[in-house]
Design goal:
Length: 353
């Protein structure tokens, strides 16, 4: 199975918010087909950022809206081990030691087959009934207390100086050495008029320079002196492009409602996940009324970072209070290490109530 490199796989299947497979926009209802897809589900990296499966000798990249497993029901097998059941009556098991909790109080974990899961609301209600007790930080079963770490673990956050060191040593695997293809293709589709665009965490400035080249007036911000030095050297002759050192979470007061578009690419995944809501507030504050967010985000099960992963569910939950979604799609022409993970979002700022 999976003899092809991921970049050569041309088929994509989705796992929807309820945990069912979807192919070409149609939910897979057949239990036998769904079971085969689950049985052949495979993570390609230790960080579980990319998933593939196969059916009838056809390979496919898997795009999960939430975790790859959405648990429908569960039961105790022994001590701290539970059996979990997903759609199509697919079963697996997990140990309580793998359990984590997100900021919406949803339980996540990793099955004994190495597949990340999230409990559905009915499964989580059943889980509570099986426990001795629970609180915000732990669950207790058969008198044994299990501490619940955060799902997106913030312990490995880089400080600003380490980002500069990476730019100096050119240890920057996130750098595309040019504008992101998803940005280029999206601009061709949405056909934006001339806008004032803010690019936060601009790095070497490839995306910012491309936006300026397309006729927009671009302000590109980064906190790393080294990143800005390299960006200015690369794009010193580009018109309508200004580079500025600033903290994306503490921007100058004069940025308030000064931009038609905020463009996001690789900053959201780099900062401590506990600060993501703060970053979204920065986006909203800088946008004019009814301005737009254009973002290339990563939906992948990588709880420890940077880069920190997340899910479409998590991104939707954070954004929907402040933005109305206009365009939301998984990109299909990504670089090999990003295939199946890039999510493009174009959203309009909601009016203040």
């Amino acid at each position: 199975m999976m003899s092809k490199p991921i970049e050569e796989i041309k088929n994509f299947v989705q796992i929807d918010r309820d945990g069912y497979f979807n192919a070409q926009g149609v939910r897979v209802e057949d239990d036998e087909a769904g079971l085969e897809l689950f049985e052949n589900l495979k993570g390609l990296t230790e960080k579980r950022s990319q998933w593939v499966t196969s059916m009838d000798d056809m390979d496919a990249v898997v795009e999960a809206y939430d975790a790859p497993y959405v648990v429908q029901s569960l039961k105790v097998l022994n001590d701290a081990v539970f059996q979990i059941t997903m759609p199509y009556s697919h079963t697996d098991s997990f140990d309580l030691s793998t359990l984590t909790v997100d900021e919406w109080d949803r339980f996540h974990g990793v099955s004994q087959k190495g597949i990340p899961f999230v409990l559905s609301e009915p499964a989580q209600d059943s889980f509570f009934n099986l426990l001795d007790e629970f609180d915000d930080d732990s669950v207790t079963l058969n008198g044994v207390r299990f501490i619940l770490p955060l799902w997106l673990n913030p312990h490995d956050e880089y400080d600003h100086s380490r980002w500069g060191e990476k730019y100096k040593s050119k240890d920057t695997p996130w750098d595309c050495n040019g504008p992101n293809q998803a940005l280029k293709d999206t601009l061709a589709q949405i056909k934006m008029l001339k806008n004032r665009i803010l690019v936060l965490g601009c790095g070497r400035g490839h995306d910012a320079a491309y936006l300026a080249e397309c006729g927009h007036i671009v302000t590109a911000v980064d906190y790393s002196d080294e990143a800005l030095l390299q960006a200015k050297d690369l794009y010193k002759n580009q018109k309508n492009l200004t580079f500025l050192k600033a903290d994306a979470l503490n921007l100058p007061s004069e940025f308030k409602e000064q931009f038609d578009i905020v463009f996001e690419h690789t900053l959201y995944c780099a900062i401590n996940p506990e600060k993501r809501n703060q970053l979204i507030k920065s986006w909203k504050r800088c946008l004019v009324p009814e301005g737009h967010l254009l973002a290339i985000l990563f939906a992948s099960e990588t709880p420890m970072g940077p880069p920190f992963g997340g899910s479409e569910w998590e991104i939707d939950a954070r954004l929907k209070g402040d933005f109305k979604f206009v365009y939301w799609t998984r990109w299909k022409r990504s670089r090999p290490k990003r295939v199946g993970t890039e999510l493009v979002v174009y959203a309009q700022k909601k009016p203040e109530l």
